[in-house]
Automatic annotation (TrEMBL), chain A:
SUPFAM superfamilies: P-loop containing nucleoside triphosphate hydrolases. Transmembrane segments: none annotated. PROSITE patterns: ABC_TRANSPORTER_1 (PS00211), ABC_TRANSPORTER_2 (PS50893). It comes from Bradyrhizobium forestalis. SMART domains: AAA. Belongs to the ABC transporter superfamily. GO terms for biological process: alkanesulfonate transmembrane transport. CDD domains: ABC_NrtD_SsuB_transporters. Involved in beta-(1-->2)glucan export. Transmembrane domains (TMD) form a pore in the inner membrane and the ATP-binding domain (NBD) is responsible for energy generation. This is Aliphatic sulfonate ABC transporter ATP-binding protein. Keywords: ATP-binding, Cell inner membrane, Cell membrane, Membrane, Nucleotide-binding, Translocase, Transport. InterPro entries: AAA+_ATPase (IPR003593), ABC_transporter-like_ATP-bd (IPR003439), ABC_transporter-like_CS (IPR017871), ABC_transporter_ATP-bind (IPR050166), P-loop_NTPase (IPR027417).
Automatic annotation (TrEMBL), chain B:
GO terms for biological process: alkanesulfonate transmembrane transport. Residues 67-248 form the ABC transmembrane type-1 domain. InterPro entries: MetI-like (IPR000515), MetI-like_sf (IPR035906). GO terms for cellular component: plasma membrane. It is a multi-pass membrane protein. This is ABC transporter permease. Pfam families: BPD_transp_1 (PF00528). It is found in: Cell membrane. The keyword Membrane applies.
Length: 283, 268
């Protein structure tokens, strides 16, 4: 299933993944087969708040394991779309389904995780306990500690396990939140501007971390961001939302690891920005 | 980093010991000045007896067993009243913070009752209970109820909704959500309520014991007044001050132990 869906990815993407095969294989072997990414299909999705029609028919297919970035001007409904995907709000019309091959009952709540701009850590729980929260119903299981520690190691914070969140920096808190989202080995991970509150340097190191865990774990990643350069640096595909629909669907073919500030990415960034700005001029 | 460490480390080692003593300098100095003033005759002993006289009176009462008995009675009344009023206030705070229905049903009524000063009920309470134990317990419980109720309610209502949403996303059951998110989030506010309530507890008890009691510290002070034993009156007042301080310290210790995560309680 993994290979079948992989073929739907652009060729360069496959090639770039092959570069990392040795590393990726090591990680994949110790993981149960069911923790690979889920494909996602959205059809005719609508959502309004009162008179405010925010989403007016979104159609979208995301293949398993793809990294998708969603951009659009403020208030265009990016967070709304993400919350619907994560099941946090009710759908007005249309449907969201995770893969054709899956019965709804095959999908556990632990398979879909969200990360927000705020870390949302429990201030009264130590770092490790905060990560354990991410295990969902497996919190009480015997290996909860071990799994949480592993997730903390993945985000590079193993030495902070016994700290209170209040002593961590903003970037570290966000990494704990990432560890909490990863600990259940989700198959879809949705990010709502997770790096929005971080300074430029921390952002870049967090972007690298996101890319690394995504490559290691193979989940389907949906990243909402207002930073177009972040979108083209990380994503396989950038979606531009305008007037409640997906107005542009831009494939990013650049290989990985990506050279930040390369001409190719800069060109893409420029064209996406001009889409956004022209939409802004029209309104 | 290393510079900061080298400065803050010795200080954090030194501070607790000095801290423990520093706070007693002013009370001790006041007592010393007071003693000197009394001995020198600046303060007539009819107005204010010397600290040594107060201590002597305390010693005598201690030997007769009267002091311990009265302190114990007052302490018992305070704790039982606090426990009753506190648990009812906490229960209502929880119920109204967690359930809209419960809040709609009872909050308005409670807010109305709150505006009656509970000490205004003393005449009524004496008519109901006489000068029985239950009169004092009732008054203390009533006084303690509101600060605990209001602060528990406020604490629960102001728990970060984003954290609650996070708990739900991560599949917490209602019980888990309460235990891991709502209650710890409300705890700082609950402690504010407890500290307020402790103050009200002593105040209520003093008033109640002075007006309607046949034992306890307030009663001891009133008796002493009738016999013009001003040293015993002053002694009672000092003991109230010490007990109040003790209760406050106890709540601080508890606060420190349970709110260790709070930036305000981490080593500065
Ligand atoms: N719970 C809600 N109730 C009412 N209106 C809402 C609600 N949530 C979102 N909206 C409205 O829906 C629209 C889209 O909001 P959304 O948060 O999805 O925008 P966004 O694209 O994420 O913006 P930003 O980039 O600023 O985060 C906005 O006009 C907002 O006012
Ligand atoms: Mg948003």
């Amino acid at each position: 299933m993994q290979t079948a869906l992989r073929t739907s990815l652009p060729e360069t993407e496959l090639a770039s993944r092959a570069n990392f095969a040795p590393h990726a294989r090591v990680v994949r072997e110790e993981r149960p087969a069911q923790t690979t990414g889920l494909p996602l299909s959205i059809r005719g999705l609508r959502k309004s708040f009162g008179d405010n029609e925010v989403l007016r028919g979104v159609d979208l297919h995301i293949p398993a394991g793809q990294f998708v970035a969603i951009v659009g001007k403020s208030g265009c409904g990016k967070s709304t779309l993400l919350r619907l995907i994560a099941g946090l709000d009710k759908i007005d019309a249309g449907s969201i389904s995770f893969g054709q091959d899956f019965e709804p009952r095959d999908i556990q709540p632990e398979d879909i995780r969200v990360m927000f701009q705020e870390p949302r850590l429990l201030p009264w729980a130590r770092v490790l306990a905060n990560v354990e929260v991410g295990l969902g119903r497996d919190r009480a299981s015997g290996d909860a500690h071990a799994r949480a520690e592993k997730a903390l190691t993945e985000v590079g914070l193993a030495d902070k396990r016994d700290q209170w969140p209040s002593v961590l920096s903003g970037g570290q808190k966000q990494r704990v939140a990432l560890g909490r989202a990863l600990v259940s080995r989700p198959r879809v991970l949705a990010f709502d501007e997770p790096l929005g509150a971080l300074d430029a340097l921390t952002r870049i190191s967090m972007q690298r971390l996101l890319e690394r865990v995504w490559r290691d774990q193979g989940f389907t990643a949906i990243l909402v961001t207002h930073d177009v350069s972040e979108a083209v640096a990380l994503a396989d595909r950038v979606l531009v939302i305008e007037e409640g629909r997906i107005a542009h669907d831009v494939v990013v073919n650049a290989g990985r690891p990506r050279q930040r500030g390369s001409a190719e990415l800069a060109g893409l960034e420029g064209s996406i920005l001009s889409h956004l700005l022209s939409a802004d001029d029209r309104t | 980093m290393s510079l900061i460490d080298s400065i803050s480390l010795p200080r954090s080692l030194r501070l607790p010991r000095v801290d423990g003593l520093i706070q007693w300098i002013v009370p001790l100095a006041i007592i010393a000045i007071w003693q000197v003033a009394s001995v020198a005759g600046f303060v007539p002993t009819r107005v204010l007896p010397a600290p040594s006289d107060v201590a002597l009176a305390g010693w005598k009462l201690l030997l007769s067993g009267e002091l311990v008995r009265n302190i114990w009675v007052s302490f018992w009344r305070a704790s039982i009243g606090f426990l009753i009023g506190g648990s009812i206030g906490f229960a209502f705070g929880l119920a109204n913070g967690l359930s809209q229905l419960s809040a709609k049903l009872t909050d308005t009524t409670l807010q109305m009752v709150r505006n009656v000063p509970h000490l205004a009920l003393i005449p009524l309470v004496i008519l109901w209970f006489g000068i029985d134990e239950s009169a004092k317990l009732f008054l203390v419980a009533l006084g303690v109820f509101f600060p605990i109720y209001l602060n528990t309610l406020h604490g629960i209502r102001t728990v970060d909704p984003q954290l609650i949403e996070m708990g739900r996303i991560y599949g917490m059951t209602d019980g888990e959500l309460f235990r891991r998110v709502i209650f710890p989030g409300a705890l700082p506010s609950i402690f504010v309520g407890i500290r307020f309530a402790l103050g009200i507890m002593w105040l209520t008890l003093i008033v109640a014991e002075t007006i309607a009691a046949s034992s306890g510290l307030g009663y001891m002070a009133m008796q002493a007044r009738e016999f013009m034993l001003i040293d015993v009156v002053v002694l009672s007042i000092l003991i109230y001050a010490l007990l109040g301080k003790l209760a406050d310290s106890a709540s601080r210790v508890l606060e420190r132990a349970t709110l260790a995560w709070h930036p305000a309680f981490q080593k500065r």
